[in-house]
């Protein structure tokens, strides 16, 4: 389901306002580059722009979303709006050539034509050169919209012919709401909105049994290390090490740990809508009362230092044992 205008304004206020203004003033560029991380609304905004160009009943540049033109663009059935996606791992020259042939014809329902190239950074060099020729001689009624997560991988000559519109990562609060709309449990959405800004990854992790168990293990380790440091060492052996084996998994465990201590800070500063573990609020509130801001800051620094040591290939067991001791006020990470 395509995003509404209100959602686009929330997600990307600057991009939304810029494009709406261009549509209202009939000053649309011949080529745009939407650049930003996955899950930031680039494709939704591209469809919004396409609808604004074809809409039968726009209001100050904002498409109505209900006319025949808007609905067919939403469903992917408009004959003059073409979306190009990677064929396998890349966008091939033949795909761009087919697009050029299509655009050499007159529009089916008007003189205007629009094309959207998703993952434009995945064009082969031949495809990119073909597109460059297309951009160098733009038809006055053709609008190109290129979407990319990695602008640096694209030809500078293509970039120079596009109006660049950056897309910012969604705020965790907005992303959490978006995940809840996608039927991710609110408790899991709160945590995942801090760990990734990619919707597909967040939805996958929300039902991934390994991740669900990882969350439980790190919460239990936090509870145990507060009062029973020696039992924490035992749990490292019996639960932590068997579950977190790969470097990426270990780093994720440290992120899970980090957000526990960040929650304590959020509680101290009354930012409850920022919590990563809202289901632990009652327990964390007690802990926050018994912990100083200075101590929490030191503990967060200690976890970040552990992440740095991990990237220096420090032994995992030694790393975690030292982390438990340091969080208890024992020996430092060395």
UniProtKB/TrEMBL annotation:
Annotated ranges, domain DNA polymerase III delta subunit C-terminal: 241-327
GO cellular component: DNA polymerase III complex
GO biological process: DNA-templated DNA replication
UniProt key word Ion transport: no
Entry GO MF terms: 3'-5' exonuclease activity; DNA binding; DNA-directed DNA polymerase activity
Keywords, alphabetical: DNA replication, DNA-directed DNA polymerase, Nucleotidyltransferase, Transferase
Enzymatic reactions: DNA(n) + a 2'-deoxyribonucleoside 5'-triphosphate = DNA(n+1) + diphosphate
Entry-linked Pfam families: DNA_pol3_delta2 (PF13177), DNApol3-delta_C (PF09115)
EC number: 2.7.7.7
InterPro entries with a match to the protein in the record: DNA_pol_HolB (IPR004622), DNA_pol_III_delta_C (IPR015199), DNA_Rep/Repair_Clamp_Loader (IPR050238), P-loop_NTPase (IPR027417)
UniProt KW Acetylation keyword: no
Name this polypeptide is given: DNA polymerase III subunit delta'
């Amino acid at each position: 389901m395509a995003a509404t205008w209100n959602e686009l304004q929330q997600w990307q206020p600057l991009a939304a306002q810029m494009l709406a203004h261009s549509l209202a003033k009939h000053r649309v560029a011949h080529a745009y580059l939407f650049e930003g991380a996955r899950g930031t609304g680039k494709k939704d905004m591209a469809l919004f722009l396409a609808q604004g160009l074809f809409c039968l009943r726009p209001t100050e540049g904002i498409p109505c979303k209900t006319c025949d033109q808007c609905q067919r663009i939403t469903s992917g059935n408009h004959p003059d709006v073409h979306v190009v996606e990677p064929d396998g791992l890349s966008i091939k020259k033949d795909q761009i050539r087919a697009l050029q042939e299509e655009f050499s014809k007159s529009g089916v329902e008007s003189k205007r034509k629009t094309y959207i190239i998703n993952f434009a950074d995945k064009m082969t060099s031949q495809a990119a050169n073909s597109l460059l020729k297309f951009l160098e001689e733009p038809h006055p009624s053709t609008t190109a919209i290129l979407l990319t997560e990695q602008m640096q991988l694209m030809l500078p000559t293509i970039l120079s012919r596009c109006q660049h519109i950056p897309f910012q990562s969604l705020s965790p609060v907005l992303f959490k709401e978006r995940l809840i709309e996608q039927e991710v449990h609110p408790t899991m959405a709160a945590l995942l909105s801090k760990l990734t800004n990619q919707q597909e990854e967040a939805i996958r992790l929300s039902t991934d049994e390994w991740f669900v168990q990882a969350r439980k293990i790190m919460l239990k380790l936090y509870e145990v290390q507060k009062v029973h440091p020696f039992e924490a060492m035992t749990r490292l052996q019996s639960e932590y090490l068997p579950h977190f084996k790969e470097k990426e998994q270990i780093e994720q465990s440290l992120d899970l740990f980090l957000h526990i201590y960040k929650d304590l800070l959020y509680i101290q500063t009354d930012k409850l809508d920022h919590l990563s573990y809202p289901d632990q609020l009652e327990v964390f509130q007690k802990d926050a009362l018994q912990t100083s801001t200075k101590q929490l800051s030191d503990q967060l620094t200690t976890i970040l230092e552990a992440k740095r040591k991990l990237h220096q290939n420090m032994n995992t067991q030694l790393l975690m044992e030292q982390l438990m001791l340091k969080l208890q006020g024992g020996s430092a990470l060395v």
